[in-house]
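Researcher: Next entry in the queue.
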Amino acid sequence: MSHAGPPPRWRNCPRRGQPVAGKFLPMKTMLGPKYDDQVPEENRFHPSMLSNYLKSLKVKMGLLVDLTNTTRFYDRNDIEKEGIKYVKLQCKGHGECPSAETTEMFIRLCEHFMEKTPTELIGEKGVTCEPLFSFSAPLCCLLLSPAPAPSVEAAVAAFAQARAPGIYKGEYLKELFRRYGDVEEAPPPPPLPEWCFDDDSEEVDDDFGVVGQESGPSSSASAQGKRKKERLKLGAVFLEGIAVRGVTQVTAQPKLGAVQRKCQEFCEWEKSGFPGAQPVSMDRRNLHFLEQKGYKVSWKADGTRYMMLIDGKNEVYMIDRDNSVFHIANLEFPFRKDLRAHLSNTLLDGEMIVDKVNGQPVPRYLIYDIIKFNSQPVGQCDFNTRLLCIEKEIISPRLEKMKMGQIDKTKEPFSVRNKPFFDIHASRKLLEGSFSAQVSHEVDGLIFQPLGKYRPGRCDDILKWKPPSHNSVDFRLKIMWGVALLLLYSTFSHLTLRYTFTFIHLADTFLQSDLQC
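Model: Structure for this entry, 517 residues:
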């Protein structure tokens, strides 16, 4: 099996942990510049970035142990030219813990290096973080323990502190305790980190180098199309801060899996997780898209994203971005050509918002796209046709039955409306106070929707724009002559931010700008 892109779950996996006991630096694999067209700038991890990081710490790395099972990710010469010894220790992966022989080889390698160069760091690199969390780092803690009989419990805890959340596969924890302690004392694994559910990941095993495997049985085409097991988020909340009657989370199988798979199949989404289209932020690199292709614009509501699957009477489901599924009772969608019949095999996309009406919160579902209508692949049609389908086939039949007294709005859990889109020349008006006064919820930006067919997952041509007052600031960078000062703001502390910064990348220099766009 050949994979030309980055490893699965690589994009949002943290680049590195903290040095463990001042000696070991765990990190994910670096990717060379050849991957730049597939990796956003903020997610890149070039070998040069490791070198710059080490220089900022004023430390030297003398050895890099590569645990992946491929050589395609970057050029080892970029490591060796920095004076770092490079050692390839291929690990098999596929959910298997490293053999005792591989483990012993790793320990002897590290012990020998520490005897020769006790002041230099050892770097350990896996595909994402799986090998680090499951093998090498806890062994590093064992190696560095000053105790005569080092504790595997302390080793696991030390690594979790340096590289949260620590070992997150239960079978690896058990094997580690089986080899170095008492398997009965193995703790349960921590919850999976959010980056494990990166929507853009390839859905294959992410153990020691199965991605990019260059030989062996795992390279067969039979592994293609393998989906990652869907996670179940118990206690999912439908709308934060407001109780909506008639809404219950679906947690039982096979119904949960059936709803998730149907949505994915309707979207032609071959991975796991939420299949809906994901917009990207507007910037100088994609602003010209508005001139090159047709677009419509609408306001960006401060709402909650949901797809809606209509699969027959009393079979209406909402799917959120965590791929949690909710059953919606007492919500009817009649068939326009026969109002006695109910729609099925219909998939909508939209958002839940909360309007304030006479001071009271009123939940509404705003439909802004449609993928399937009664099994018809309307998602393949242009956006204008899809908008017409929503109004004519979804909204109008409901209004007709309401006029006939056959749908009682007061018994429905929330109202349903179509979200209008406009010519992009109306963009300014959507932000003016006169328009904002017409909607009863917060308008926090604009969405620019291309006129092409519906595409699942990250869509680089669906653009979202927020005014500077609504943008969050994760860091401030101030450039002085020859000196770069980076001030990081922790998301876990209380922040008072007075400025919004825009950075313009010119050649290799970042300039601070007060440009508001």
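Model: Confidence is low (pLDDT under 50) at residues 127-134, 199-225, 481-517.
Researcher: Noted, moving on.
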